[in-house]
Amino acid sequence: MFGDVGKQSSHHQPPPELLSLDFVRQVFLAQKGPTETQFFVSPWPSCLSTLNLNYTLLSHRTLSALNTQFFNSTAQRWSPKDPWWLSAIALTNLLSYSLSTNTTSYLPQIVSVIESQSQPLPWWPQGEGLFRADSTDDTAWWALALLLAYDLTGNITYLDIAKKDESYIWQYWSNSTCQGGIIQDIKHNTYKNAISNELYIALAAGIYLRTHEASYLSKTEKAWTWFKKSGMINQHNLINDGLTQDPSHPERCRNNNQTEWSYNQGVILGALVDLYHATGNSSYLSYARKIADAAVGGFSPLITTFSSSSSSSSSSSSSSSSGGSGMLTESCEDEGEDDGQGCNNDQQAFKGIFASNLAKLDQEYPDDKRPYRELLVGWAEGMYTYDRETVTVDGDGEEEGPGTDREEEGDLYDVSWGGPYRRSSLGRQVAAGGCWLG
């Protein structure tokens, strides 16, 4: 979750099959030579982490439940009736775990999912496959997963597809409205929103870091310069959903004042970290800190006070500042349904995206000066303690990544990390995965 590698604790050992490299990855990585398997454990001292959680084990249990409960081997995606992009996030969970633990147990499933989902989409055949969808954000989620697949396997095909996806998205940049930016809705050629442009910045920066081709750095810097001035970042340094055209000046746009979703605050953090690594310009980190501090600060709509005695998060704003004890909460959690969980399938996944990118920013600082680690630990411990249901999962069969011939336990998670647990879904589960695997 937090990017520190250490020795595996003796209290919880991972399944033995996680300790070996399988044949497929040996073929892909033969030129790199043997590597030593290492595992993530909680890096925090006892004064911060009261539960001493084993993040590797809990990540494994989360992915086991993800696959057993939601993966459809016929469709080669998770919960086929749910939005397609959520399967890209599930795939990202598997890839992040595989890279973090140096295991290839999930690699056959990863390869199969990519092969299957790269075919032309039934609802958008004009994209001609390779994840080119009817929206730029859906395309970008898959392209970012492909960059991780390239990192895991060394297979240049995955990088080439990601580059094709970048070109596909870039063609929807236009200066005719909002003086720049990428549209989200390709089918209707409309809506310049935060997530599509943030994802593009992250994608182009990610490709540059892997290729050092100057054109990608030029485009990602252009996209960030436009984004920063577009008006989507409001006076509180939070990012609203998108832009709307000014009726008096159609070529100009303004903030649409729609919801400040957590993932809109998150994706840009990871993108700015990558821009910092691409350029060495610390101003990118400084701007990321400004957005992150606003997102987790005392007046943020994303942070609510947490009461462990009630096993739930209240709707009042937390008075804590960055690094405080507030619980990450999406506004939709208190809307719509009788049980207070009105987030739709998309929205259920947002918090994990924010948490993983906040952790990425946090890792840029020395261990004794990490600005967000206490908050991240609090979210993880709250989720583990109050928002979890243990289920039995079958360790055998193609739907289970770490194939074994014995039953195992897995963990399902709900949308409200402060609890109580009521039920899980694909979006809820990948959000938990993002929290563990950031």
TrEMBL record:
* Keyword hit for Magnesium: no
Database matches in SUPFAM superfamilies:
Six-hairpin glycosidases
**Low complexity bias locations:** 307-322
The source's superkingdom equals Eukaryota
**Keywords (A to Z) from UniProt:** Hydrolase
Q: Give me the ranges of the annotated region Disordered.
A: 306-346, 393-414
Q: Which GO terms describe its molecular function?
A: hydrolase activity
Q: What is this protein called?
A: Glycosyl hydrolase family 76-domain-containing protein
- Organism equals Apiosordaria backusii
Output the lineage of the source organism: Eukaryota, Fungi, Dikarya, Ascomycota, Pezizomycotina
